[in-house]
Structures are given as C-alpha cells and as structure tokens.
Design brief:
Layout lengths: L1 E5 L4 E5 L7 E6 L2 E5 L5 E7 L1 H4 L13
Antiparallel strand pairs: 1-2, 2-5, 3-4, 4-5
C-alpha cells in the first residue's frame, strides 16, 4: 500500500495494490477510483486534496506483518 501526495498538483493518491488495474471510475469531478477486472478498488485519487482531506496529518495504525 502506498500513499503519495503531489504538492505541485495538490493530488493525493492512495494505492491499495498496484497490480491488476484495468480501468477507472469517476466518483465525482475530483475523485477517481482505479479498479481491477472484478470491480475491486485498487487505488483512489483525490484532486484538490488540501481542500478535501487532511493531507498534513497521516496516521498509520494496525500495520500487518
């Protein structure tokens, strides 16, 4: 799993898994889901992230071994 923030475009990208992405779906004009062939979410992109999320604070809990 990866979390990336691109300050130059104010974009937050959260990748749950990188393999198997076959398409994308728009939730709204600023939110995009990347999905696999079965429709499972592989990643999510938030445009205008600093206005829509708390990108300055990241908390990670329950990391699996």
């Amino acid at each position: 799993m990866k979390v990336k923030y691109f300050a130059d475009t104010d974009t937050l990208y959260i990748e749950f898994r990188e393999e198997g992405i076959t398409g994308s779906r728009e939730l709204d004009e600023n939110t995009l889901l990347d999905v696999d062939a079965e429709g499972n979410v592989c990643a999510i992109t938030f445009e205008h992230a600093s206005e829509r999320t708390d990108v300055k604070h990241l908390t990670v809990e329950g990391i699996a071994a």
